[in-house]
Write the structure tokens for this entry.
Amino acid sequence: MKSIIFLAPPAAGKGTLSEYLVKKFGYVHISTGEILRDYAEEKESLAHQLEKGEYIEDDIIIKLVTQKIASLPKNTLFILDGVPRTLKQAQMLDPYLPSNVIPINIEVDPSILLKRVLGRVVCPQCDRNYNVYFKEFKPLVDNLCDDCKISLEKRSDDTEGSFLKRYQKYQESVLPIIKFYQEKGTLIRLENKDEDQNELIKKLVEVIDDN
Ligand SMILES: [Zn+2]
């Protein structure tokens, strides 16, 4: 089995895929967001930077991520989520990665991503996500959480404008990273043409289970 670097645009379903791999195969999910928040509890200056949404230097991120990887028991499978975010991070990270790590680029038609974003509603009490545009993610009763029976809410940044901005920013940052892994010959591309994620999960399992 392989460990994974996930490269995927916003709303591509990285969360769902990660959750599946964690539950089914015992992957450890390494997210830069979480690592930075943990570290910020020890280091006040970083906490201030995070609070203000400031850019955190590449070497700090890479140091924390590689420390985390090194702390895992041998042969633990992991998913890197949110790192590398820049070409420089990809280059810095590379020498520290075990040989069974594959970068996977998930490609989803932006019109499907947009539908996911615009249809998303969340339960304010239990944080469960629903989607009014997809049958399998609709609540049983319109606009009510199945579990809590209270009204679902839309997130304020789930708008077309905000999505397009995030999507474009992602494309700009990911292209050099994709090129980097392509040139190394390690990049795997997974296309999700369908609106359904089950097909993507199947393809993903084939790729990670390769040998
Ligand atoms: Zn709920």
About this structure: Residues 3-108+167-208 form a domain with the Rossmann fold fold (CATH 3.40.50.300).
